[in-house]
Design a protein that fits this description.
Elements (H helix, E strand, L loop, with lengths): L5 E5 L4 H12 L3 E6 L3 H15 L3 E5 L5 H15 L4 E4 L14 H29 L2 E6 L3 H4 L5 H21 L4 E8 L27 H13 L7 E4 L6
Parallel strand pairs: 1-2, 1-4, 2-3, 4-5, 5-6, 6-7
The protein binds NADP nicotinamide-adenine-dinucleotide phosphate (NAP).
The site of NADP nicotinamide-adenine-dinucleotide phosphate has 32 residues, from helix 1, strand 2 and helix 4.
Amino acid sequence: MLTGKTAIVTGGSRGIGRAIACKFASMGASLAILYAGNEEAAREVTDLCRQNYGTEARAYRCDVSDFEAVKETVEQIKTDFRTVHILVNNAGITRDGLVLRMKEEDFDRVLDTNLKGAFHLIRHCAGLFLRNREGCIINIASVTGLMGNAGQCNYAASKAGLIGLTKSVARELAPRGIRCNAIAPGFIATDMTGDQKENPLLGQIPLGKMGSPEDVAHAAAYLATAKYVTGDVIRVDGGIAM
Ligand code: NAP
């Protein structure tokens, strides 16, 4: 259970982040969810957490790629919740294209959101974790960061970078009781993946179907409570990257 714990979930308004927020709320955690612009979806998630599980839940509009905005938001969360115990770096985007034609701005935008965004949150939450002598960081990577994927050099680089970030932060903060792990999902049915019925890669999934956001949330719940696990990367991918 996560009773008495406060969790930040970036990108908690939709898809995988929404499922993780609801799962943590069902385990008794208070929730601070960050979103980019979809206020209605964010409010729906905080209402769900409060009404279904009776937990405290607030939404904060914050672009994770903005170092100062993240700093201010974490300060506000500290004022509202007193402290933070769990951080889930889930916010992510794609801007797919072949490397030959990829625009610099598309490469930068994906790296700034998916990789630097996680660094910003870790950087501004680490002080709270150190003071508490405990902390749990979960970074949502991707099997693309392990295997690569044609047409996604920016996204794959961001997710491979996130795995390196995870292992380095795990080593650095383990002596202070702070754990850092990653989840590498495969094909999960969300707005990001859209309609995949025609995607030939689906036929390569040993378990024969896409995963659900709840499948990823299940792994996040495990990592949030697995006190002797750090620096790990858990695949939730139906076996595609084995
Ligand atoms: P999604 O449905 O597109 O949702 C993305 C979430 O991220 C939304 O809550 C969005 O907020 C938020 N977001 C986007 N840019 C942001 C920014 N700059 N600052 C703050 N929040 C931002 O995506 P998803 O499929 O759930 O993916 C979640 C994570 O899992 C991503 O990191 C993705 O790379 C990873 N992943 C997904 C899959 C998959 O198959 N779906 C597979 C592997 C890894 P708004 O609602 O306000 O727009």
